[in-house]
Amino acid sequence: MQKLFSLALGTITCVVLVGCQSEKNEASSAPAQSSVASTAPAAPSQPAAAAAPVQVAAKAASVPATATTIRIKAGGTAPFKDSSGNVWLPDQGFDGGDTVERPDAPITGTKDPGLYKSEHYSMSSFSAKVPNGKYIAKLHFCETFEGISGKGDRVFSFNVQGHPFKDFDVFDKAGGANKAYVETVPVEVTNGIFKIDFISNVENPQINAIEITPQT
Q1: Could you tell me which residues come within 8 angstroms of residue 78 by beta carbon, excluding any fewer than 6 positions away?
Q2: Domain total for the chain?
Q3: Within a domain: 8
Q4: What are phi and psi of 114, to 5 degrees?
Q5: Is 163 part of any domain?
Q6: Measuring CA to CA, how many Å separate 197 from each of 45, 94, 126, 127, 155?
Q7: 114 lies in a domain?
Q8: Which end of the chain has the lower number of beta carbons within 10 A, N or C?
């Protein structure tokens, strides 16, 4: 279970616990997953991409609960600075699943392709400590796994602070592989916790980055 986290304006304080595991494929720590739709959460079965992905285990971080903006690069092992100068924290806040990096993936449709070259997959949830209030959540997706070749190959559902997204297909939403797609969701936090729950339908849920900013 990952610890909850937050981020103080102007100050980043994080503790990263990094684990190591086999780099043979994305399913190194879970049983094979069928490509047939299922109502139960599926285990990862994705082989490594041709670009020699680098795997890292899930990490946790704890930062002050006074944060107003949170940016997480899922699957990342180090902070990432985007084209606007924003700094994204390494992978943290996820419950379960695994991570993979695909540094040679030819990402299109974004000014920041590096943000989409790592992912967290097969997780059950993501959570973060934030002050109560209204936020804009941006969920960043990109289908970079070579085992997904068309619509319907990866389908999952998720719920962002009570806002459900059913039968979500990254390949279909983005219009193909290696194309960035952002889902924007206005949310309200009333208990100090921002949370996303994920449910697998076909293959595993995956995400490349999460951004939470206060509504103005």
Answers
A1: 90
A2: 1
A3: no
A4: -60, -25
A5: yes
A6: 20, 10, 7, 9, 15
A7: yes
A8: C
CATH value at residue 143: 2.60.120.430
Q: Is residue 23 part of a domain?
A: no
Range of the domain at 193: 70-214
Q: In the numeric block, which tokens belong to residue 27?
A: 């399913």
DSSP 8-state code for residue 154: S
Can you spell out the DSSP letters for 65-94? TT-S-EEEETT-SS-EE-TTSPEEBPS-SE
Q: How confident is the model at residue 216 (pLDDT cuts 50, 70, 90)?
A: confident
CB-count burial class (<10 Å; 0-12, 13-18, 19+) for 121: buried
The span from the CA of 173 to the CA of 86, in Å, is 26
pLDDT at 125 over 90: yes
pTM: 0.71
